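hey can u check if this looks right to u? its 203 residues, i copy pasted from the old doc so theres a chance i mangled smth
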Amino acid sequence: MKNLKPTLASIILGFCVIPLILYLLVFAKNGVSAKAEDWANFATFVSLFIGICNLILFAILTYYVQGYNESNNKFIETRSRMLERPIISFSLIRGRYWIQNIGNGPAINIIVKSDFHNNAWKYGFIWHSLQATNQLEPMDWTTSSNIICATYSDSMGHDYISYMENDSLITIDCQDEKSIKKFGQQIEKAKLNAPSITWRQNH
């Protein structure tokens, strides 16, 4: 929509100039005609030209309005998703890591993996869902983990990754192209499976 005004101004200017040029080249090449027939032909030409211009303008406006509506709908969907997004975080407390959902929506289909060495994860656990309650839950096996990651979804099926390396946490929105491009290496690691992935037992 930002380029709509200059584009319409250029088109309208062209619509005004083209009939004048055609008039000078065709109808007025022998001077201003005094014949009613010539003026009638010119009026027919102008009417037809204006009709075609209206169709072109309508098509251009339709294209821009459709693009604006699609962009606006995408913005509303993204904003709504971000407001309900779960965010899984890890905290080191008393010599082990704890997991919690610090976001605004429930996290489901959670798989937690840790201890990444030789291009493989040592541990992998299927976690129960985490509500957005900020409640900490212990991960007893993570007394010394170089990397921890969790893959999970929100209630609408959108996928996310929480990735912590050297106690620095990043969260990745797998629907966002910029996020995917920026954290491609972390995403590839998160996709790797542990030798065995089992249900985590509550303690």
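The two ends are 56 Å apart (CA to CA).
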